[in-house]
Inverse folding.
């Protein structure tokens, strides 16, 4: 039972982590909390449903389609909701936040119209593959989710610290004007960041669809709020923090249900976050990245 | 010239007066006709209908009025009772339902009201009807306490408090259940009240509740709760959920290897469950007032007539409305006159009325007494559970 619950917790935590990675990337560079991220994630899940259930295509096509669609959504988000507000005089620093909230409402209602309000099943043969050890059933999807989240985190860390584009991104995050003077094409970097973060949301959407077989227009909101809590817990803009925070929240929620009362699931999980933040206000891994910001 | 004008004006006035009196005379006589016992054969009555005809829930109102109209046609063809329906729209709003009902109540030739559609609407219309002494019957109001509003308030829609215990009892008898687990959505009034009924039922039947777990609307991951339930090995899971969440719960439960049956409330009772959960939906037990595939000639005839008339299969709202008008007709026939008080008394005496929903009686409050049909999903479709 404990082992099963641990598997549940790690699966949930890995999904949280991938969602949080997208959040943290945008926050690290733009200093904006992207409230539309949850809805982009939801769109990714719906694309997965359409591709696998309606069109009957294989699962890798679903990943590809979801990445493409969410990347386009990410580009449009940056082009129409964020860029017009950037660098203008008199624009409040809260304006981009509000504008992403607007986009999230738009996307949620759009999916209501396109897909209907109900739950859509994610029917896929791959999601059914499982093996049993004793009384424990493990689905291959659960392992895949964990592996994908770890790989994404490592790839992202490597990309940020070692590659040229990653360095440019960090420079942009440090100081937009200086980076621009030093020859970094900041506009391109910002667009790239938002598109990448959105594509990650798309991947997370498909993983949720496969793991829980439940895709609906409301799923973006709760997942988005959890992702937000996680990046605060892990340290704003920190990739490893997002991963650790996701796993901690996922495990905490699962274990509270297993050994406590499911009615207090969110309450206790978020209480734990508050306690951790009281001890470490900058988050678990948060150090310089968030301090450098005015 | 002036005189002529004056005269013609006088003539016109007189004519108008004559027409007016003729009109009022007319309505008076028709009213009297309805009232008088002696008119002999058919009891003629006007019944007001308040229904949700425009707005997001218009589909309910449509099904309900379709049910009424079909029943009206048949009843009038039979000839014992002649019914005329006056339909008003409530748009699903309390204030509009109230003004529509008041308009109908103030017409003395209307002897009873059917509707309104929603329980919230009934909560404002019911007391007003009771005050005015006009019988009112809800055909789709399932909330607690509706018939208790007053002596004149009735309903023929099966309340949750009757449906859930019926389903639980049948499941317990069949599977020799001793231990149950309860799972419910704690952020929705409807699922919460379903949970209260389940808890009461489990206590009354002396079942051992091994655990009570909760979830929230739109949640995607129920594995933690289900793994815990699996570890406690209940014989039956009572799940108060709307079909959207319920179907996902069943799917995840079956994936975890939980194969015990589920009992759900009215919100769980939807063909959508099968669509979402597929094979995992097998083993869901619900109680319902209406089952369209029942092997009863009366039910099959109704389904066929409804389909040829309106081009779609009747749902429970259409069926309940259809039966409601038949109950009204029966009460009118027994009363022998179109009088509000006589109709109320004869409604209260309805007992074992054979409708398409089954044998129907009112209890002392005007609430439903009937055996609901208990269904189970088997091989991907709803079947009678025995």
């Amino acid at each position: 039972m404990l082992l099963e619950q641990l598997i549940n917790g790690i699966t949930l935590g890995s999904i949280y982590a991938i969602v949080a990675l997208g959040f943290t990337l945008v926050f690290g560079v733009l200093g904006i909390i992207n409230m539309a991220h949850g809805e982009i994630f939801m769109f990714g899940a719906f694309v997965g449903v359409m591709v696998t259930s309606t069109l009957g295509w294989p699962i890798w096509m679903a990943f590809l389609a979801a990445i493409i669609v969410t990347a386009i959504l990410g580009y449009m988000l940056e082009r129409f909701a964020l860029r017009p507000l950037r660098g203008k005089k008199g624009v409040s620093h809260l304006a981009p936040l509000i504008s992403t909230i607007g986009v999230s409402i738009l996307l949620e209602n759009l999916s209501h119209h396109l897909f209907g309000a109900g739950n859509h099943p994610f029917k896929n043969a791959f999601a059914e593959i499982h093996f049993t050890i004793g009384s424990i059933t493990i689905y291959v999807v659960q392992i895949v989710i964990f592996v994908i989240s770890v790989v994404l985190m490592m790839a992202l860390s490597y990309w940020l610290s070692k590659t040229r584009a990653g360095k440019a991104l960090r420079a942009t995050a440090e100081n937009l004007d200086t980076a621009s003077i030093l020859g970094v094409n900041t506009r391109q970097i910002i667009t790239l960041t938002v598109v990448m973060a959105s594509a990650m949301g798309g991947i997370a959407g498909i993983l949720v669809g496969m793991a829980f077989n439940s895709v609906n227009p409301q799923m973006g909101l709760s997942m988005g709020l959890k992702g937000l809590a996680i990046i605060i817990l892990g340290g704003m803009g920190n990739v490893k923090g997002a991963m650790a925070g996701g796993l901690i929240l996922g495990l905490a929620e699962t274990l509270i249900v297993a050994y406590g009362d499911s009615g207090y699931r969110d309450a206790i999980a978020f209480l734990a976050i508050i306690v951790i933040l009281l001890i470490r206000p900058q988050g678990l891994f948060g150090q310089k990245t968030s301090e450098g910001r005015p | 010239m002036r005189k002529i004008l004056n005269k013609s004006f006088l003539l016109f006035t007189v004519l108008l007066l004559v027409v007016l009196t003729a009109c009022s005379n007319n309505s008076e006589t028709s009213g009297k006709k309805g009232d008088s016992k002696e008119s002999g054969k058919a009891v003629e009555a006007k019944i007001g209908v308040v229904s949700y005809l425009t707005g997001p829930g218009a589909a309910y109102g449509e099904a309900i009025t379709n049910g009424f109209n079909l029943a009206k046609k048949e009843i009038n063809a039979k000839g014992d009772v002649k019914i005329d329906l006056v339909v008003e729209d409530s748009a699903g709003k309390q204030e509009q339902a109230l003004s529509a009902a008041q308009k109908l109540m103030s017409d003395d030739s209307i002897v009873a009201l059917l509707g309104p559609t929603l329980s919230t609407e009934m909560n404002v219309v019911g007391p007003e009807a009771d005050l005015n002494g006009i019988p009112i019957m809800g055909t789709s109001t399932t909330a607690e306490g509706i018939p208790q509003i007053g002596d004149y308030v009735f309903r023929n829609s099966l309340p949750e408090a009757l449906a859930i215990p019926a389903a639980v009892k049948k499941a317990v008898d069949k599977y020799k259940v001793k231990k149950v687990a309860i799972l419910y959505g704690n952020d929705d009034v409807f699922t919460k009240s379903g949970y209260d009924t389940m808890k009461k039922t489990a206590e009354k039947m002396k079942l051992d509740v091994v655990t009570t777990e909760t979830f929230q609307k739109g949640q995607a991951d129920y594995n933690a709760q289900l793994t815990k339930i699996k570890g406690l090995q209940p014989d039956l899971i009572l799940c108060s959920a709307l079909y959207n969440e319920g179907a996902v719960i069943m799917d995840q439960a079956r994936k975890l290897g939980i194969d015990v049956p589920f009992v759900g409330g009215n919100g769980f009772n939807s063909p959508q469950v099968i669509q979402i959960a597929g094979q995992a939906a097998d083993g869901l037990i619900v109680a319902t007032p209406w089952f369209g595939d029942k092997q009863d000639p009366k039910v099959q005839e109704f389904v066929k007539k409804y389909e040829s008339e309106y081009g779609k299969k009747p749902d429970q709202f259409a069926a309940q409305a259809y039966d409601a008008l038949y109950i009204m007709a029966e009460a009118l026939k027994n009363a022998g006159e179109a009088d509000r008080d006589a109709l109320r008394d004869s409604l209260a005496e309805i007992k074992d009325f054979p409708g398409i929903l089954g044998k129907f009686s009112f209890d002392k409050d005007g609430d439903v007494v009937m055996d609901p049909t208990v269904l189970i999903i088997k091989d991907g479709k709803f079947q009678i559970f025995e």
In short: Chain B touches chain A at residues 186, 213-225, 227-228, 230-231, 244-245, 247-248, 251-252, 255-257, 272, 275-278 (CB under 8 Å). Chain B has two domains: 43-158+295-371, 161-288.
